[in-house]
TrEMBL record:
GO BP, sorted A to Z: GPI anchor biosynthetic process
A Gene Ontology cellular-component term: membrane
Lipid metabolism is among the record's keywords: no
Organism: Galbitalea soli
Subcellular location: Endoplasmic reticulum membrane
InterPro entries attached to this UniProt entry: PIG-V/Gpi18
Protein name: Integral membrane protein
Length: 381
């Protein structure tokens, strides 16, 4: 009931912020001026999800004038648009309405699962405040528009909960759905591999019987296979082996031109692009990575348990390997949600009230900077 009340309160706040920005929204690619709530909830990638629900994926990849693979629907995985399409009985006009409701309901489910993840490790008050931080987070408006983030979060939390409880078969059900919602299979495979190593090294304190060893190894391989499944499907359907990767790379073309994906180079490229004065971009990147690594060693983070710490590290390693840093990085950091459990540790009422106020102000700033569209916008959500 407490989670439900927090959910309702947070949605009132986030809905109010979205409505204010919708009221001042000028005409855009997606809708006319001053769109209603559900039209506003269909901006940006939501349009791609509706495109997938309506027309599926192109068998022939679109090309630019100079022959490069252009932006297309293969970058958007099918679980979310297919689910929403089924719930609308294939009525495309209802996609943004039902999609927004589905996203909000997955957020409620995520909030309930987040509390379950934390209660074995921290006191109930800290767990509940961590849920509040998730629900009021600066990016929480994304959880109630027609985006797949809250669905990904729900299945990710379910997978981590069953990993925590060492029920690997049920975990893989969640991993399978998650892997076709957002690209999460490969970082989860990395997390499972690191988890298996950690369990093996600590087997004297925490027994790691052969049955669990086999289950963990199989789950790691299965998660890796699921991570590669969508790129393989895209390659087979289009006849272009790198269809998925090339499609994803087309979104970074305005920053660094047409490039190949070389793991762990995108953030170096990004550091030099955002801060061209050498070597300060690289220095800042090193400081950020060192700061994150140090944060994982803090007592408040260590108390969250190995599963959540290992997952958080694995997700950030994955982002460092494949993602070019731009305004979407804030959205892509959502799966690092376990850190909210550590941020929730202080018990001061003033601290907790202040954090909710700051988070709410962060929502206003994020919607203004990244979601609201002012005609020329290079900061997509």
């Amino acid at each position: 009931m407490q989670v439900l009340l927090l959910f309702v309160a947070s949605r009132i706040v986030s809905t109010g912020i979205l409505l204010v920005f919708a009221a001042i929204q000028p005409a855009s690619f997606w809708a006319g001026a001053h769109p209603d709530y559900f039209s506003f909830a269909g901006f940006w990638d939501a349009g791609w999800y509706r495109y997938v629900a309506q027309g599926g994926y192109p068998a022939t990849l679109p090309l630019t004038a100079d022959g490069h693979i252009n932006q297309n629907a293969w970058a958007f995985l099918p679980a979310y648009p297919v689910l929403v399409d089924l719930l609308t009985a294939h009525t495309i006009g209802l996609f943004f309405v039902v999609g927004s409701i589905v996203s909000a309901l997955f957020l409620l489910g995520s909030a309930l699962l987040f509390r379950q993840l934390l209660v074995p490790r921290v006191d109930p008050g800290q767990a509940m405040f961590a849920v509040a931080l998730l629900l009021f987070a600066p990016l929480s408006p994304i959880f109630q528009v027609a985006y797949a983030e809250s669905m990904q979060l729900f299945f990710l939390m379910g997978a981590l909960l069953f990993l925590q409880r060492r029920r690997y078969g049920l975990m893989m059900v969640f991993v399978a759905v998650m892997s076709f919602t957002r690209p999460t299979g490969l970082p989860f495979a990395l997390a499972l591999g690191l988890y298996a190593i950690a369990r093996w090294l600590r087997r004297a304190e925490d027994p790691f019987p052969p049955r669990e060893v086999r289950a963990t190894v199989l789950a790691t391989l299965g998660s890796a296979a699921l991570g590669y499944a969508w790129p393989a499907i895209a390659g087979l359907a289009t006849g272009v082996p790198n269809a998925y990767t090339a499609t994803e790379l087309s979104w970074r073309q305005p920053y660094v031109g047409w490039t190949e994906l070389v793991p762990f180079t995108p953030w170096i490229q990004g550091a030099n692009w955002w801060i061209p004065q050498q070597p300060w971009g690289i220095v800042l990147l090193v400081v950020l990575i060192a700061g994150f690594a140090g944060a994982l060693l803090l007592p408040a983070v260590r108390r969250l348990g190995p599963e959540l710490r290992i997952w958080t590290a694995s997700w950030v390693i994955y982002l460092l390997a494949v993602f070019f840093p731009q305004s979407s990085v804030f959205r892509l950091l959502i799966p690092a949600f376990p850190l909210l459990g550590a941020i929730a540790a202080p018990r001061s009422r003033a601290y907790r009230a202040g954090m909710i106020v700051l988070a709410t102000l962060g929502q206003i700033a994020w919607v203004y900077a990244c979601y609201w569209y002012d005609g020329y916008d290079w900061t997509p959500p």
